[in-house]
Amino acid sequence: MNLDATGAGALIVVLVMALVTLATRWGGVLVMAFVPISDRVRQFITAMSGSVLVAIVAPMAWQGDSGARLALLATAVTMLVLKKPLPAIAAGIAVAALVRQF
pTM for this one? Predict the structure, then answer.
């Protein structure tokens, strides 16, 4: 199936993506309404956020350029020192921008 990416085709793509996003979000809420939140389920949910973060960061560390690697290093060091995510994110963005600028 080919869909024109200009005009109405782009609007159709955006609407379909919005519907899929809504279906997955509402579906997750619907499924979790039937799952009792025990300690084991709570631990699973807590661990999932960390595993998603690793799934995003690991390919960048493995295949990224020097700007990405130095940004990850700056973010990690800042987080270990300050233990606050916002300054760590800002440091990573600043390092990536500076490395790529020069």
Answer: 0.56
